[in-house]
Amino acid sequence: MHIFLNALGASTASGLTYLRNVLPHLASRRDVRTTVALSSRLQPEFRRFGEIAFADISDLPGAAHRFWFEQRRLPVLVRESRADMLISAGNFALRNSLVSQILLSGNSLYTSADFYRDLLARREYGMWLDTRAKAFFAKKSVLWADCTVAPSRAFADELQRWTGKTVFAIHHGFDREIFFSDQSPLPVQIQCKLDSAKDALKLLHVSHYNYFRNFETLLQAIPLVREKLAGQKVRLFLTCKLQEGQNPGSYRTSSALRLVEQLGIRDEVVELGAVPYSQLHHLYGGCDLYVTASYAETFAHPVVEARACGLKVVASDIPVHREVCGDAALYFSRFSPQELAERILQAASDYSTRHFSAISIERFSWKNHVEKIIALAAGLVQGRMAA
């Protein structure tokens, strides 16, 4: 079977993480040939997989240009490749695909009432309109595709309610061997910041700055934790910079910056900036707790990574976190800094270990993910041939 994987939407952390974990498994399959549509800027990282072919495509500026290219030009590339199956991995499907098509849907913002309310509260009217427009085509895409796959049951159910069409849930994976393979140390400037907080309660949040990760609730909890620690310091490590223009997308950091100053937590908030994915396990291992206040998620890779590194997790009480973590986390109402602070203190206490079960990392396997996608694709191809 020849699969054409449209990965033109893989331009940020989650999309690249997907490719980094999925392409090695596709490359190792002898029963599958794979052609990938990927920005020429990103192709060099993946050229080591000689078994995979790449469609030669220049950078496409913006989602609108990419959508136009996919609808107009991509069908020609699929036909010329003689592929049997198209997998669209960027939330948008081809309207009239010449071959069977699986849509991988992984953007929970299109269905998130919290996100739309947040944008209006921030007066981000342009982003609100842009998201609504993209949501229209994302919903149409679910209807255009032969089948749609979501990375969690919780998000699949949300898509089904939204579109009225059956959506399959195939969990994203976690490859322990790959994740822990790079033993090179953290950059000196990052290690120094960790070392300087050795006597503090070290909290970690892995994400570039955006609105749906709900940084403001995280920040509001810090002075509450500091007050209760009675002399012990607390540090919140962020893998981003709270500065304009330092993060992907057009999210404005001004509200977070104001909060840091108003709450007097400049010393407590440590902005590390981006950390290479291959070295994240060192960062997790250097902290005490992983915290996330996200109000919209499709899978939430960092909570799996954190538990694999032995960190206790404090997470917002949303269905995806419950599905992925189960009893391996403590939960709080997503917009309550008071509850978040209480859970952090509970997790940090000596007796709290009994509240955390071991997360079953084995059920999150990239190998199993690829096998299930291929099985689904083979069924669709056989069904089309029989018809």
What attributes characterize this protein structure?
seven-stranded parallel beta sheet, globular, alpha/beta, 15% strand, 13 strands, six-stranded parallel beta sheet, Rossmann fold, 15 helices, single chain, 387 residues, 2 domains
The number of distinct β-strands equals: 13
Total number of domains:
2
* CATH-level-4 superfamily name of the largest domain: Glycogen Phosphorylase B
Low-confidence stretches: none
How is the biggest beta sheet arranged? 7 strands, parallel
- For the record, the CATH class of the largest domain is Alpha Beta
From the 3D coordinates, which CATH architecture of the largest domain would you assign? Answer: 3-Layer(aba) Sandwich
Query: How big a fraction of the residues is strand?
Result: 15-25%
What does this structure look like?
It is a single chain. The protein has 15 helices and 13 strands. The protein has helices at 13-28, 63-72, 74-81, 113-121, 125-144, 153-163, 176-179, 188-195, 215-228, 254-263, 280-285, 301-308, 319-325, 337-348, 366-386, and strands at 2-6, 33-39, 52-57, 85-88, 100-104, 147-150, 167-169, 201-205, 234-238, 269-271, 289-292, 312-316, 330-332. The protein has a 7-stranded parallel sheet with strand order 3-2-1-4-5-6-7, sandwiched between helices. The longest helix is centred in the last third of the chain and has 21 residues, at 366-386. The chain is globular and about 65 Å long. The two termini are 18 Å apart.
